[in-house]
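ok so heres the complex, two chains, lmk if somethin looks off
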Amino acid sequence: MDIIYTIWLRSMIRYIRSKSRIVGSISMPLFFLLFLGFGLNSVVRIPGLGENYIQFLIPGMVAMSVLFTSVFSGIQIIWDKQFGFLKETLVAPVTRMEIMLGQTFGGATTALIQGIIIMVISLFVGLQVQSVIGFFIALGFMVLIGISFTAFGIAIASRMEDMTGFQLIMNFVVFPIFGLSGALFPISSLPSWIAPVTMIDPLTYGVEGIRYGLTGVSQINPVLSFMVIGGFACIMTIIGAFLFRKISI
Amino acid sequence: MTPAIQVHELTKKYGNLVAVDNISFEIKQGEIFGLLGPNGAGKTTTLSMLSTMQKPTSGTATVQGKDVEKNEDEVRKAIGIVFQDQSLDEELTAGENMDFHGRLYRIPPDERNQRIDSLLRLVELYDRKKDIVKTFSGGMRRRLEIARGLLHHPSVLFLDEPTLGLDPQTRNHLWQYIADLSKEKHITIILTTHYMEEADRLCDRIAIIDHGSIIALDTPQNLKNGIGGDIITIQTPDFNTATEVLSEPWIHRIETHNDEIRIFLMNAEQHISDIITRVNQQNITIHSVSIHKPTLEDVFLSFTGKTIREQEINGKEMMRMHMRRGKR
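and the predicted structre for the whole thing:
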């Protein structure tokens, strides 16, 4: 535990120091929220929420900020590889499992904080948290998304030599995961041929879970959402740990 | 007393390339041992195997009696390592880098803080403890890395090219640190270098390594003595004829290299005029003459027929070819 905490602590110190990264990674979901939210608020009707697109969009943007931050945190291992710091951890008398878990929890925590920042900002554009329990349910889902996708980032970073493939991963893996998740639109209003794709996207369940927590309304049963995203977090952690074990420098 | 390090027929292959070829040696407790050789000779690979970072293809190695393959964690606890490339977290302060290391090696908090302060004082970085490493110069980073490598009180310290890329002044300074360190803390130090001067000045014993094999292993003094006295180097375009006229019992041996003749003999000062007269009698042009005491460079040259720099170019070629082959 002490080693996991040590690695986690380092992530936190680095996170707090990187002001530009904090601002940079909240700006995109924030702009989405403002432009799409205000732009489409009066045009779009959401089942169950009526004419309140912003209410619908906020959980999606919270999930987005958690998703991107956590993938990026995981992939940052490549920097450690390139700048040599990874060697320092790998040659210490600690297991790779501990290092990997420390990184995962570190990434998930930064992602959670980023998500909370978006949530707080959302309070000013119309977010009305339904209940305290709901708020904590949302946090729980954010943690699970954070763990899943940090582990996902670590898995990818373990197989990548440098940052050149990063853009590719972002455009062809992470963005589709986000786009298909129902963060921007209700999944029930999709054409029937694309709906199944949405249902195999693990983030869909994360977004629906956060949405249930924050607005009290969701299209997927929150218990099912919890089981799917929870299971996905476990599987990704195992895959990430497995690939990280084989990392060579 | 068990040797600090025992290496027996250690080999590492990458596909067809044999990086380390069946080497054996022992390092005594408290010794400063140098692995000297050109880049690509297998020094870093040897060090990676000894520090459990890479698995040997065959052979065995122990550190403080612990096998590097079977007893990985014990070996890791016993060693400190300063890598060839920097391995600090630049976003953290000097103190935080040290603290991180101390936590990884599970040093209790009180002791950790005390050791961090005293080591930072040792490497004269105490007043920069709260500064971010990004702002440090190359020499300061090296010193910090050495301090960090000592934090968990290792009994064996690995230094991989400790002064690579540093200016002469910093290099001298660092040599002093390393020498003092070995004296005061009785740590066994194994260092790799391709600087002859560094090996000569610091090491108690040196293994000269080339193409993955150890070609000579002794104290710097013995290695230099083994060469046979002083060296007179004559630069001449006509070195074949010049070599022929010089056959005297007091000449130990003659080697030719590029357009140089290298004459090994005792008491070079007494014989130099004789040599020049003989060469002049044959109307051979002499560009320059010099006498010097043997250096490790001469030792390397006489064992491999090449200077370390020439060998380095070959080594790099080989690595490049290997990389290309690997990618295909």
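quick notes: Residues 2-245 of chain A form one domain. thats all i got rn
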